[in-house]
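Hi, here's the filled form for the chain we discussed.

Project: internal
Contact: R.S.
Residues: 839
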Amino acid sequence: MQLRYHIEELFAKNASEFEISQLIKNHIRKYLGSLDKLFEENQGKDFLVKHTKRIDNFLILIYKYTLRKFFGNYIPFQNQLPIALIAMGSYGREELCIYSDIDLMIVYKEIRGYNTEAIIESMLRLIWDAGIKLGHRVHKIEDIFTASNSDLTIKTAMLESRFLFGSQFIWIESSRELHKIRNYHLKEFIKEKLAAHKDRRTRYPLSMEPDIKNSVGGLRDTNTLFWVAKAILNITKLKDLVPKYISEEEFREFRIALEFLFRVRSALHITVRKKQDKLNLEYIPDIAKKLGFIDKKLKNAQVQLSEKTLASMHTIDITTQIFLKKLTAPYLFSLKNLQKLKEHRIEKGVYLIDECVVASRHQNPSNITDILAKLTKFDSANLQYDISFVDFVRRSHYPSVNSKQIYKQLRALFFNKYVYATFCMLYDASVLSKLIKPFERITNLAQFDGYHAYPVDKHSLLNLYHLENIKDFFIKALYDDLCGEGKALIKLVALMHDIGKGRRADHRDIGAIIFKTYAIKLHFSDEGIKFGQILIKHHTLMSSIATKEDIYSEAVILSFISKLEDVRVLKLLYILTYCDLNSVAKGIYTNFNARLLHELYNLSVEMFDKKELMGETKRRLRRENILKKSEAFQALPKSLQRKTFLINSNLFFIKHKSHEIMKIIKIAASDTIYTCKIENESYLTLSIIKSKDLNLGYLLGKLSFLDLINMEIFKLFDDKKYFKIEFNERVGDDDIEYIKQLIDESFDMNKTTKLTKPIILSGEIKLDCDHSKTYAKMTINAKNQKGMMAYMMSIFDTEGIDVANAKIVTIKNRARNLILIEKKIELCKNKQKILEFFI
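And the returned structure, exactly as it came back:
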C-alpha cells in the first residue's frame, strides 16, 4: 500500500502525530535500504534526480498531512494558502546526494485566518520526527531580500531555488525577489565567490584520497561555475553556456567527468552509509566493485577507479578555471590596468605582470615550438601562469611527431633556473605528456602503498618544486656547485625518476631505459646520461639504506657506493633523495632521517676517498688518532684519556665525532650518579649517562605511546653506560615532568609494567652473527605493534644481552627494526633459543 494511503488510514483512526512520523520514518528507512538496487539501474545525475524526486514526495506528503490535520476535509486550494516550499542548494539543483543535508526554504505571507506560522511549525516538527536531516529557512516574502544579504552562503543557496509545492502565487512573488537578489551588488558577489573558491581549493588540495565534493576539481568547483554563471547570465543549467562560452566538445568532456564524480560520490554514500565525501583508501575496493571496474593485467580495479577519479577531477579543475575566467573577466577588469598591460606586453596577446604570465582571451592559437621558445624567457622564482595562458597553450597546434626543434627548445627549458611553474603549466595544458610521451602512462596513476600522498604525476612534478626550494643548507650548497648540465640533468631525473611505474617490470629499470631515450634526444652528454640512468635505477637506495641498514658497517657502505660508481653520482643522489622524500607526503622527510642521510653521505664520501678498504678496527683507530690530536682531549687528565681508549665499543668511536666523545666522557668522569638531558624541540630525545643499569623494558613500556625511532647503548668506563633514546615526535611541556619521573623509576631494576608479547612470525626475525667482528645484527620485519621494543628490551635485560644500537623504522604499517648486539660466545651459541623468545 502506498504511503499516502497509510497516512490517510491512520488519520481516519485519529492516530497520534508520533505514529504518523514513525510510519514515514520506516518508509524512508526502507527506501534508503533499496538504494543499492536503484543505483544499479540508474547512476550519475539520473540517480540523483530520482533520489531528489523521492525526497520531494516525502516532504510534499508531510505538508499535505499537515494541511489535513489543520483543515480536515476543508483544505483550501493549493494556490489559496499563502505558503510555498522551495528547494535550495544541491536539492534545488536536483543533485541531492543520499546523506546530504536537504535545504528547504519555506516562504509565506502572514494573512489573518490562515494561521500560516502554526502550519509551518507543525510541518517542520513532523519532518524532524520522521528523521529527515533538514537544513531549513522560513521567511516572509518581504524578508527574503534582506536575509540573502546577511550571508554569502544564503544568497548562493537562493540562486539555486526550485519550486517544490504550495502556492504558485507565492512562488511568483518569491521569484521576483530572487531576481533582485541575483542582480544586487553583482560585482561584489563575484569577488566574494572567487575568494571563497580560492580559499577552499587551498584547504582541500588534490591527493590520493580526494574529497569528491571540496577538493580541487571536485563538485564544488562545478557549483562555483554555475553560481557565477547564474548570477551573470541567469542560466538554468551549465549547458546554457554552449556554444558562446564553451564549445560542444569541451562541454562534453566536462560533462563526462562530472557524471563520473556523481557516480563516485553516490557509491561512496551508499557504501559507507553516511555523509562521506572523502574517497579514503579503505573504501576504494568496494566503490570500484560497485561501479563495475574489473581487474586487468596491468591495472587492478582500484587503480582504474582512482585514475579515472583523478582524471575527471583534473578535467573539471582546468575547465572550471578557464570558464570562470572568461565569465568574470569583464567584471574584474579595471581601465587602470590598461596602461599596465601595454607596459608589460611580451608580444601580441601575451603579458608578464607581477611575475604572472597572462594571455588575451582573444589570442589565436600558436604552435608548440614557438610557445616553448617563449617559455625559456620566463625564469623567476615566483613565476606563475594565469589560467588564460594555460588555455592559450592548451589550444596550441601540436604535430603528430615531436621535431628536433621541439626537443631543442625543451632542452633549453631544462637549463632555466626555475622550471617547476612552467612544467605544471604544461601539465595543466595537457602538453607535457606530448613532449614526454611516457608521462601519459603515469598521469593520474594511483599509488596504494600507504606512503605516497599523491599520484605519480603530481609526485614527480613536486620533485621539481623541492629542487627549487631546498631548505637544507648543505644539500643546497651541493646543488649550487653543480655545473649547468648537472643542474639540467637533475631536473630531468627528478621529473622522470618514476616514469617507469604502471608497468610489469621493475619501474626503476624501465625508467632508466626511458630516461636514456629522452636524454639522447635532449643531447645530454654520454657521462650525464650514464649518471642519470644510475640515479633512476637507484633512486630509492639511499633512503632505504639510511633507514633500514647499519650505516656504520663497512660492508653496507661498500655495497652502496659500488652501485653508484662515482662520488658525483652520490652527490646527485643525495639531492634527488631529498626532493623525492619531501614530495612523498608531509612529515616523511624528518630531522631524524635527514641526519641519517647526511651521516650516510659523509661515510660514503669518506669511503670513496680510500684507496684501500678499512676494517672496523682501522676505522676506530683513525677516529682515535683524530681525537688524540685534539687540544681539548690533550688537556684532559691522562687517566681519563686512558679510560676513553679502553671503551670496548668500536661503534662508539665510529659513530661519534671528537667533540661529541669529549662531551660524553667528561660527564661520565664526574661524580654524579647519573645525568639526564631531555631535548624536545623537533622531536623528543633522552640522553642518559648512568653508573648502573637502566630498566629499559620498564621505561620503554611506559613510553610505548610514543613512536620510538632510534636507541643507542654504550658501555663507557667505571661501570657507566650511555643511553640515547630518540622518538619521532615532540611531547607537550606538561609531559616532561612525567618523563623525568619515569626515568627516576627506571633505575629500579625490579620495576615492571605489563608488556604484551608482539606477534612476530618465524620468518620475520633474523640474527646474523657474522655481521662484524664485534656486533651481531638482529633484523625484524613484522607488523608494527606498540610496545614491541619495550618487550624485546625486557628480554634482553633478563638474558644479559647488551644492545649497542637499535634503529626503528615503520613503513606501510610494518616495523623494520635493526638491532646491533654486542657479540658474546653465548649469544651465537644460543641463537635459536634467543629467537624463540620473540616468535
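Let me know if anything looks off before we file it.
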